[in-house]
């Protein structure tokens, strides 16, 4: 009982922690506490002994609880009390067991002494010789038992003393670690506040930013000035560490008109001319006018009016038990996942969302330099992740043979086609043609691994981009996406890894690094950095930004060897001109939080359209029902479609077995609009568009399409 319980007990209650337990005879127990005494009678001596043992253990526990409560009482805050109880939980359990052991030792000693006295009394009685010998034998055995018990008691007492000593040491050590942890957290929080205040002060005082950054650069040993000689470098020049050491960049705005080249204090491994950074005619300047300015220009073009909203997401609670009880006795592959986890778009439509910032590729066509063009391609590769920052729901898995078209030829000059070409493993082929001078194609297979607290999603497959006039052929692969707090907490998504973009014609390269989120990092979240270099390895541009907001590009005018890192590698320091904004994320539409955080493009992807193929994702009934807010009907329809697909798969498997028995080859599923070929650039087997879809659409001849819905 706690002290609070003891203060509100019934009349006649005895506090065991201060009670005295004794025995009168073979069956009676005396329980007393001050002026109150109870006489209890057991049925037998064995039962009496069981009760005495139980009461002694309960008394020891009551004493221990009273001591713990007196130790814990004080002026501590509630938070510290909970931390302390959590910290010492294990020690209290150990102490409890040791107290029980000590109580048992005392009982053994007490009852052993009583047995010894009883046997001595019997031995002193006048009994026949035969009885005396037996009593003597019993007495000898009792003596041996007493000696053994005493040895065990001494060993237990030694163990108890040792355990108590170490328990105090562990308690002090744990308390010290707890205090150290609290101090460390307070220090980190204080440093973060100071860092934020310094950043705000630096942004608010542009006159001081250049001088303070200059001190930082000199302190790091990046670009020191020669002694006795005034540096003729502009203080507002930017300095970037080289990409190979995954650096943190130091950014300061520079004025290229006043920039002068210096040979006295920069050992230039590569040099560029500031006059090449043409502010009037460069394609970069047109992109520096914020990307969503172009979105306003789109409204001036004659185009079909698209929808700007969808029905709000219903606020349905997810009953996990209702899902689990429907899964009992079923195979794992046959368990239907409810649409509560989905968003009303298919994976094919999500893949098409990569084209949201297609104007970056339209601008890249106009670039005369392949390294300039690489900058726009790099910005485009990063822009495809901007829609994922709030989109934690999973898209619908496409059915085998499902397609999705996005025909924006008249509005934006491109048309896109996706097809689900494999179901196990799931793979989608994508082809985009733009009459503004580029073609993009890819085959993406999604691999995922559940790692306890988070889910890693790894897109496998290369993305190809070719410009018609120059013949520049770019290839890159996607990074890993990670969904955190799968079990408990609010879901959030992070992107991490590296992208290497290669121009297989000019051999230019761009190394992009997606920095994973870290609580202890001083960098901005979702940071992306990179360097664009030519075939000789000479760096031309530095890329920087975040994958959810914008990407900037800075032209390198000098590079030099800086200080040596802690790993023993010598860093390269890039001196750049002021950055140009290549890409900036469009703002989300109003009420986006109630529309699955869809962007303007995503809101139009599932809009019903005429003349599309009967296998188009827009015609998928479960997805359409979910978008309309009819989730229960959507779940039923989703289960029907999945069972229909399983029946088709079983039929194909039976056909394959039959063909094998007859010694014939079985080709399996053959994609309708794509065909598998060995890519000449990467040497990989990839699904490429073989033609015929848009011609079939013009004729409205869909006779070759399978019935999947």
Automatic annotation (TrEMBL):
Predominant place of localization: membrane
Recorded coiled-coil stretches: 174-201
SUPFAM superfamilies registered for this protein in UniProt: Oxysterol-binding protein-like (SSF144000), PH domain-like (SSF50729)
Region Disordered: start-end pairs: 65-87, 202-237, 254-308
Localization, UniProt: Membrane
Keyword terms of this UniProt record: Coiled coil, Lipid transport, Lipid-binding, Membrane, Phosphoprotein, Transport
Stretches with biased composition (Polar residues): 284-295
Low complexity bias locations: 207-222
GO molecular function: cholesterol binding
Domain PH positions: 1-60
Protein name in UniProt: Oxysterol-binding protein
Domain of life: Eukaryota
Gene3D superfamilies: 2.40.160.120, Pleckstrin-homology domain (PH domain)/Phosphotyrosine-binding domain (PTB)
Topology class, membrane: Peripheral membrane protein
Organism the protein comes from: Phaetusa simplex
One GO CC term on file: cytosol
The family this protein is said to belong to: Belongs to the OSBP family.
Gene Ontology process terms (BP): lipid transport
Pfam family, one: Oxysterol_BP
